[in-house]
Amino acid sequence: MAARVLNVNVGVLGHIDSGKTALARALSTTGSTAAFDRAPQSRARGITLDLGFSCLRTALPPQLGPGPGELQFTLVDCPGHASLIRTIIGGAQIIDLMMLVIDVTKGMQTQSAECLVIGQIACQKMVVVLNKIDLLPEGKRQSAIEKMTKKMQKTLENTKFAGCPIVAVAAKPGGPEAPESENPLGVSELIEVLKSQAYLPSRDPSGHFLMAVDHCFSIKGQGTVMTGTILSGSVSLGDNVEIPALKVTKRVKSMQMFHTPVTYAMQGDRVGVCVTQFDPKLLERGLICTPDSLHTIHAAIISLKKIQYFRGALQTKAKFHITVGHETVMGRVMFFSPAPANINEEIQENVFDFEKDYLYQEEYLSKDSVSSEENKENDQAGEVQLPKQQWALLEFEKPVTCPKLCLVIGSKLDTDIHANTCRLAFHGVLLQGMEDKNYTETFLPKLKVYKQKHKEGQVERVMDDYSVIGRSLFKKETNIQIFVGLKVKLSTGEDGIIDGGFGQSGKFKIRIPDGLKPDTKMVLTAVSKKKSKGGKGDMTKEDESSKSDSALPVTISLIFKRYVFDTQKKMIQS
């Protein structure tokens, strides 16, 4: 029986030019030659699959179980920046361990901070690698490494990676031009640290098969080979798999893992899958899956959290780069939160309840946003309660194909790459996709997000004990008929109902079912007397004093809610 090979996927991340690729190269060469001697006959016959990812093999460390076996680290070198975000998010479910590569002469840089953010969202364990120590003068090298190590520990102390290992190396002493004979520094120590950090990742073969393809080529007489990492489920020889981007289904003819033919592979495995022939140029990267298991969507509802390092508010109607599945597209957002009546209810994870009402938000609510505008006038309101969960409606500029419940990241990738600012704005989970192109008519009316409306006017005069005339609540051109029957409240405490328009200038009649209070009548009589007196010049001292106390105008409050996606724009009062 073949010795088992345990595969652990290691994401190699860092700021541009921190030496990620050199490190991956140094690791894979040092690893494979130092750990064991590869016998040529052990190389599998038949097709060899270029996985496009380098790997390093070493003996299985004791913490990963007894018996013979090998530990394989698949090094996922995440290249240039926009693709970095896509690569990581696409493979977020299967990166088990992250190596954050830092140029020891520069420390944390913009993209290193972004990599750290992605790591916190997508990964459980991290090792920090301080690279390029050969650039430090030998006499001061040790103290410079210690100083940078302390700095990194400080940076990480409030993240989930606090206390993670920090290793100093020179992956390519002398830089890219140096001769190959120069031996890397610290790489064997790094391999030992990686072994100590390795763990048995949780893998689940159940559910739909989904694989992220990163390489595609054809072999004459065999078919087309797609290599990549299985994100979920499993695949066996003879299975049918769908290539959604090409809208075709193909049969699996053969498979290889680590140059060895296999008949089965599952979540977390890197595998080459050979299927019946198609033009490999049509699929450089992308997803393949169980037929009909992915959906192509035009909009989505997500639960989300703001990324703390993103500066600035997240505004409704703003556009973001939305990374979902293996694609990044532009999308517009609308934020909403639980209705005030439900604010303390426990929210079920990864489920969206269409039966409930939700409150429309002009922006995502965070400590910064709440403390800014709304509280300037009501400082005495004390601590404003933030909702336990907030959601967003995302509307994509072009449809995206993705699995259900996948990770979503919103970013502003058009921000200047050299600006010292985090471009990742929010992350979340896709709860509900909208596959219908006409989702605005077929789907959105089911989404009960409302805006709270509050209008104020004044009582103009009393008609009789049970009715008054109001003004300043509507514009002259408003159709008052649609407001008939809505409840209003007077500042003196009476409840009223809008009865209809009065004249042509936007005035209206209010019925007071329980009648006006005697005090209210007095106030209103004083107000109308004051109005019916002569011009301003005729006012006496007594009038002045009566104006200041009893003759304050009586205000009318109209409060209602309107559902954002209600085609009839009905006004609703509880």
Automatic annotation (TrEMBL):
Pfam families: eEFSec_4th, euk_SelB_III, GTP_EFTU, GTP_EFTU_D2. InterPro entries: eEFSec_C (IPR049394), eEFSec_III (IPR049393), EF-Tu_GTPase (IPR050055), EFTu-like_2 (IPR004161), P-loop_NTPase (IPR027417), T_Tr_GTP-bd_dom (IPR000795), Transl_B-barrel_sf (IPR009000). Its cofactor is Mg(2+); Mn(2+). It catalyses: GTP + H2O = GDP + phosphate + H(+). GO terms for biological process: selenocysteine incorporation. The keyword Iron-sulfur does not apply. Residues 535-547 have a biased composition (Basic and acidic residues). This is Selenocysteine-specific elongation factor.
